[in-house]
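fwd from M.: "can u put these together and see what the complex looks like"

so here's what she sent:
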Amino acid sequence: MIDCKHVWDRISEFLDDTLSPEERDLVQRHLEHCEVCSAILDSTRNILILTADERVFELPMGYGERLHARLEEEISVLRREPR
Amino acid sequence: MITHLPIQQPPDRRAEAQVIAAILAGDTHLFHDLIRPYEHTVFSMAMALLRNPQEAEDVAQETFLRALRNLHAYRGEARFSTWLVSIALNEARNRLRRDRAFESLDNSPDETDRIAPELLRDWREVPSEVLERLELRKMLQEAITELPVIYREVFLLRDVEDLSISESAELLGISVASVKVRLHRARIMLQMRLAPQLRRPAPKRRRFPW
């Protein structure tokens, strides 16, 4: 049997599924009867889904237009001097 | 509903390889289409590292320009997105080094310290609708940009850009074990920071009080 602290130290590896089968099993069994740890695991997973969303950072107005205009300039240069 | 902010589907790798071949064969204008799916994610990564929209936009532009000029050097072993991310990371890092003393002392916490996640019993679900709410987006932005840079980089590569642990290790020039330690700390820090704030349920607005 492992304690909660032991589980917390392995949350990240548990989410990535990089624990050894034995350790994974120990964590899994702990989670089955520990509501606190399974809530922590769920909240960590959910927070990662949210923070990993590219929409967290909004694009500045006109970003796409400026980017493609700049690329177009470069493309014309490359076309004039082919490699 | 976040219907106005569609999630980009990852492009088909084989179709992408064909587009790249066509660009190298002379259809250079196809480069516009090639990079469209990555415009947002490259900006987000630069923004998370540099915390300044103008600088992040410069880095994103420079990333795509470099990718265009060096497309012939892309070998196709890694995903195209991973290749772009590696260029963006280098650009952002160069700028960080140049613009300010690389966050070091107060930002390189002792990696042997253990940290405990926030205890939390009554909150499990975070609806992705929260991203619609400006103040919550701000909260997420702050939580990410305030991570020490060594943890932020690993988090961005692994969790935002979806690189593997070994790809992240290679790009950052650190060991797989270090990636795992830093990633664990980054994730727990985000959990500790955000779980208590997200727990508060949004006040239910009732259109009809009866």
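replying to her w this: The two ends of chain B are 25 Å apart (CA to CA).
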